[in-house]
Structures are given as C-alpha cells and as structure tokens.
Amino acid sequence: MAEARLSVRVDTDIKQQAEEIFRQLGLTLSAGINTFLSRVVAQKGIPFPLTLERIDQMDAATSLLEQNIQQAVLKSIAVTNTLGAPIALFDQNTKRPFLRYPDGHIEFEG
Predict the structure, then answer these.
(1) Which of 57, 72, 76, 80 fits a 20 to 30 Å CA distance from 39?
(2) Are the beta carbons of 89 and 98 closer than 8 angstroms?
(3) What's the pLDDT score for residue 49?
(4) Adjacent-strand bridge partners of 99
(5) pTM of the model
(6) pLDDT in tens, 4-31
(7) What percent of the chain has pLDDT over 70?
C-alpha cells in the first residue's frame, strides 16, 4: 500500500479530544482518520447525515417520533388484548420478565 501524507488544520481542542477517544478505542489519530476516509470511500459519501436542521427542529422531530412509537405500542397492546394473548413486559424492581394477561393477572417468567 502506497502512503500519502495529509496535512490539515484543525482546532486544537477538537484534535486533543479526538486523540483521547481514538486512544480509548486503541487507535492512533492517523488510524482514526484512515478509518473515517475508508468509510467515505466504502459509502461513496460522508458516513453520517449532514443536515442544516436546527436543534429545535430535531427536538420536534424526535418528539413526534416518540409519540408515534408510543401510539404504535399502545395499538399493538390493544390488538393483543383483543386476541386474548398476554403482553410480555419487564419488571424494573425485580429485574424479571413477566406476562400480563388481558384479565389482569401476571405470571413471572423464570
């Protein structure tokens, strides 16, 4: 593999933070940058979305997504209850999964 030297100007703080993250990953800064460039080539573009969305727009989009997920879960639970099937849930206190039946009774698994 032929190597080429690359010289770029970066913010000192960003460079130091990136070096620390790469160090924790077991990489040098050079290896981290090579990994990034390899992903650019493999994906034929930047390997993450580049957007001009503002934070408040992203927050609104995230909120809408969370609402849609919650509605989908509630609909799924309602359909499952209608069919008479139990719902699988997880008890945070006991750290155990359980089944909740449409009649309200609960059976812990394991």
Answers:
(1) 57
(2) yes
(3) 78
(4) 88, 107
(5) 0.46
(6) 888 989 999 999 999 999 888 888 999 9
(7) 92
Surface-to-core class of residue 81, CB atoms within 10 Å of its CB (0-12 exposed, 13-18 middle, 19+ buried): middle
Q: Which residues contact 106 (CB under 8 A, 6 or more apart)?
A: 98, 99, 100
DSSP for residue 5: -
Strands 106-108 and 96-100: antiparallel
Q: How many residues does the chain have?
A: 110
**Residue 26, CB half-sphere, CA atoms under 13 Å: how many?**
0
> What is the distance between the alpha carbons of residues 49 and 45, in angstroms, rounded to a whole number?
10
Any idea where the domains of the chain sit in the sequence? 1-50, 55-108
Strand partners, 90: 97
Q: Edge-to-edge strand order for the sheet containing 87-91?
A: 87-91, 96-100, 106-108
* Rounded CA separation 77/54 (Å): 35
Q: What is the reported pLDDT for 41?
A: 92
**Residues in the chain, pLDDT under 50:** none
